[in-house]
Amino acid sequence: MRSLLGELAAGTGGEVTVTDMEASIEHMSRGTIRHVDVLLMVTEPYFRSLETAGRMAPLARELGIGHVWAIANKVRGERDEEIIRSYCEERGIEVGGVVPWDEAVQEADREGRALMDYAATAPAVVAVERIADLIEERVGGRGGA
Amino acid sequence: MRIAVGGKGGSGKTTIAATLARALARRGHPVTALDGDPNPNLGVALGVSRERLGSLVRVPKEIIEMKEEGGQRTLVLTRPVEEIFAEYGVSAPDGVNLMVMTGVDHAGAG
Fold first, then answer.
1. Looking at residues A103-124, what average pLDDT do you find?
2. Measured between alpha carbons, how far is B91 from A96 in angstroms, rounded to an integer?
3. Nearest-CA residue of chain B relative to A133?
4. DSSP-derived secondary structure letter, A24
5. How far is Cα B89 from Cα B42, in angstroms, rounded to an integer?
6. Prediction pTM value
7. CB–CB of B2 and A36 under 8 A?
8. Does B106 sit within 8 Å of A3, measured CB to CB?
């Protein structure tokens, strides 16, 4: 199974690709994106959201994607974080990051601006920087492909 | 490094993908961001200017086609990936290169 998105996501080998894709179980089962090093499954602290990640993870691993991590998003407090962590732990899914609920995200969106430009030190950005740390550490080197 | 960011609509994946792309670019990585969502919003989330978004041409599906070779059908790119990146990419801040796909991507057989 090959797809245009998959081919482009695989890149040329000379750059870092970041592909935003809808979370489709179909994508995973058809192998639309398989030649990537990391799949980040963004999930909110609700069962329906977690279920999507729960279904995608084994499919992604079957495709041979080396790192499959859940990213907890819009997390408000310990209970939300705990819900996501225990769901993932039960299924052997690693949590690669916890991004807190952050008003700056909607504020930036309302103004049609990038969050990074609107508030580079906002809590959500700090959390994403930590995800970048994890990726650099576990997948690739620094400064360059 | 090749990273895919997936999630349900409204989960915040686009914000995370965009912010991650910018963060990695600031660390010196040459980043290409790809919008494969049927409802593409990655450009705005990356901070691409309105002018550039207006001039953006989406990658046409015809760039990949089914070829029959020796009884086998495979999907092949009609042009090298480097060329596709150069032609359809638009600049986002921090040197990120953005490409947006056309509509729903159907994987072919084979």
1. 97
2. 28
3. B24
4. -
5. 13
6. 0.92
7. yes
8. yes
